[in-house]
Amino acid sequence: MFKIYDISTTIESGMQVYKNKEEKKPVFRNMSNHDNGQAVYESRIDIDVHGGTHVDAPLHMLKDGDTIETIGLEQLVGHARVVDLTHCKEYITREDLEPLGLQRNDWVLFKTRSSFSEEFDFEFVFLREDGARYLTELGIRGVGTDALGIERAQPEYPTHRTLFRNNIIIVEGLRLKDVAAGTYFMVIAPLKLTGLDAAPARALLIGGM
């Protein structure tokens, strides 16, 4: 037997968005409904590609970087390690990561205090540049975080750029509150978009009961 953990953010009007910016909130519009005599009920959604759970593409931070369709599904499906970093107060450093025993080609998902809040935390725990450099030295495949950003308060965005330049995939906006540290089978399915800097995604972990 196995258990499926949905680690995606629910897309709704009241969802948390980066820095609580109004322009980043999703907008839902009803285009047709049964009450006005229409035969069908249909709606539209306007959403930021970095809203909720999403996969970043290198174009997000690198001029002429690759766009979202260059990240294949085979790169987003496989075993992943959830690591409990709820003890980290400000940022995740090399020293925080070294004891975890991460290995080459691992996928690692950071569980921080962000998973326990539905409000945007302006002081969210982020991956510091030295932590990003350590992950590139290890040769991991991808990193996910439960914050809406992998970094903040670092001029020139060195965490993003270090990871992107070393072909490490970044996923942001995960929800890991109900997931214990451990190894799971991961499925991340971004919307099939092209030419863009990111894509919203449904993310799942599959583990034993």
Automatic annotation (TrEMBL):
Organism domain of life: Bacteria
InterPro entries: KFase/CYL, KFase_sf
Pfam family for this entry, one: Cyclase
PANTHER family: CYCLASE-LIKE PROTEIN 2
Protein's name according to its UniProt entry: Cyclase family protein
